[in-house]
Specification:
Helix content is 0%, strand content 50%. By secondary structure, the chain is mainly β. Strands 2, 4, 5, 6, 9, 10 and 11 form a 7-stranded mixed β-sheet that branches. Strands 1-3-8-7 form a 4-stranded antiparallel β-sheet, with no helix packed on it. It starts with a strand and ends with a strand.
């Protein structure tokens, strides 16, 4: 199982980023997938989850209305579109194949002026 996140970076408050998570070594299209994040000095927290078909999504309150989780099973890739970013969104963002318990290495998102 391999999960590789990308798309992080430095962005100003109010800006946008789209994170990607490419999966391999497992049946991506059958897998429940999630995004998590971990800010410095804090525990890792759940951000959003998407069903295998993409028809069902759930979000933590922190991202509702600003974040959109999606997936392209033909590309074995999950996305997190983040809009109106705030300094408190600064964290390392990880993807997870939920039922496999597998994590990616993370991608850093920094929101700062």
């Amino acid at each position: 199982v391999r999960l590789v996140e990308s798309g992080g970076g430095l962005v100003q408050p109010g800006g946008s980023l789209r994170l990607s998570c490419a999966g391999s070594g497992f049946t991506f299209s059958s897998s429940l997938m999630s995004w998590y994040r971990q800010a410095p000095g804090k525990e890792r927290e759940w951000v959003a989850t998407i069903s295998p078909t993409g028809g069902g999504t759930n979000y933590a309150d922190s991202g509702k209305g600003r974040f959109t989780i999606s997936r392209d099973n033909a590309k074995n890739t999950m996305y997190l579109q983040m809009n109106n970013l705030k300094p408190e969104d600064t964290a390392v963002y990880y993807c997870k194949a939920v039922r496999l318990g597998s994590w990616g290495q993370g991608t850093q998102v920094t929101v700062s002026s």
